[in-house]
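Good morning C.,

I know you're traveling, so I'll keep this short. The sequence:
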Amino acid sequence: MPSLGIFRKPKKEDEQKMEEKPEATPSEPSENKEANGKTYLKAMPLRDLSDLETIKEEVNNGNILILRITPLANKSIEDVKQAVNDLYAFAESISGDIARLGEERIVLCPPKIRIWREKTPVKNEPVPTAA
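The tokens, ready to paste straight into the viewer:
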């Protein structure tokens, strides 16, 4: 089994490489995908409609976002509808992708990344109602 190098002392050439090119951390706010060549998967809460600009900026930087909408839903369902419609229009405008993950999460992807959706066959049976 190959060693992961976690417990070994860095070799001299490893130390030189680390000094030459420090790696950016995912938490840097001004991070740009073109600058570092990386795409990050980030989880963020959607607390307010003002968060939409930050979310759009992250996706424009090439990051994939998982948004938890419960904090905004606890305040206003109308704001959730407005935010989802805005994000849907944004995703379409940049040729990105957006999908719901369960009851309280949304995933938003930049261009060139697609969300796989399982195609389920449509049955021609009547839908049962509570009435």
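Safe travels,
E.
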